[in-house]
Amino acid sequence: MASEHRKKDPFLIVGAGVFGLATAHQLASAGYTNITVLEKDGQIPSRFSAGYDLNKIVRPEYADSFYTPLTLVRFLSQSISLIYESELIFAAQEAIRKWQEDPLYKPYFHQVGFLNVTSGSAPKVSRDILQKYLASISGHPKVQGKIQPCPDSSTIKKLIPALSGPVRGWNGYLNSLAGYAHAADAMKSVYEDCLQKGVSFRLGPHEGEVAELLFVPGTRRCVGARTKGDVRYHAATTIVAVGANAARIIPSATSQVTARCWGVSHIQLSPKEAEKLRGIPVINVRDIGFFFEPDLATNKLKICHMGGGYTNSSGSTGVSLPPSRLADSDFILKEDEEASRRLLREALPHLADRPLIDNHLCWFADSDDYNFVIDYVPETERSLAILSGDSGHGFKMLPVMGDLVMKLLVDGQQSVSRWKWKESKPGDNVAWRTGSSADLATTPRAKL
């Protein structure tokens, strides 16, 4: 374990999204006393974070069964367990148990279930991936008795009577262990607990938006960061956790992650309409998109088209980065609208032509093999770490991500090969998605 002197050393965390907040919280919980978090937004939850959302899916199944134990298997905080022959996994607690039991997270978790299906017109890749998802949890003791096969539309409509549409050709399963979390509220809960534990936050462009990292002259040893307002922060260890914006601060991160986005929309329901859908599972049609029960406070129903995602590539560098201004992401693409309305026609046809509101692009850091990047940046003498590569599945790890980072800091190296810094991209295909990635510049916007 780290020494007491080490615990007094200054830590600087850049970014107060899911990974940054989780890391700050775990450091403070472990007794570290000099933690500063920088966030360019003027509020937390940060509107630049992919976690700034009504809700996020919390489920254990994966196309790659490596991640299933992180959400299902319980670990002691001092343990390292061999899960697969080639990989070591460290986690302080398993994620779903914390969502279910930990007072910090429990109020925001809704265990309504997760319907995971493909449509009648799904391509083979979607059907194959669905089977991998099911295989990753089949036989696991935590899931025993929680999986209901859904081989046809009649079974689905019996299980979920609120689905008034034909759900033609839908085929998959219902996992009653899973559900969703109210994302922004959960992040706010972690933030407030960080404040109680003495973590210092600096918000807004002047104090919280990093212009550049600081290095010892002539070396790659990072000693902190300078903000847009020319405020300088010095640290023994700097941790960059800015998601899709990673390459803005660490240019070499382009070899690790690509900034991509999905289009997110909402439909405003009346209290009576919302009540009829209260408690439905998360509805996930892998080749079209997904939606949630209406938000308890606003009665808004969130819907998202889940295709290959979109990039925002610079003409001069080819690097994809999110727009700098929030307002420049306040739209969705035409294919997002078409897919969302197609999904509603099959599931809830009375809502299919309703206005889509609160439309925006949700930006995430996509690694081509959908693995996280939790490692020291090479040649920085363990002074600079990067947390990125959420790949659209990072939020559910909020309760355990800090433990994964702590293992890196305590060990001084990343022992899980798939979370290491990679010198080159492993490929362009994100296997579990349906469809190809496109660039915003060449993709028509929805006219809403």
From TrEMBL:
Keywords noted in UniProt: FAD, Flavoprotein, Oxidoreductase
Any single Pfam family the record assigns to this protein: DAO
Gene Ontology molecular function: flavin adenine dinucleotide binding; saccharopine oxidase activity; sarcosine oxidase activity
UniProt cofactor(s): FAD
Start and end residues of each FAD dependent oxidoreductase domain: 12-406
InterPro entries named among the record's database cross-references: FAD-dep_OxRdtase (IPR006076), FAD/NAD-bd_sf (IPR036188), MTOX (IPR045170)
PANTHER family linked to this entry: L-SACCHAROPINE OXIDASE, PEROXISOMAL SARCOSINE OXIDASE
Family, per entry: Belongs to the MSOX/MTOX family.
Name the UniProt record assigns to this protein: FAD dependent oxidoreductase domain-containing protein
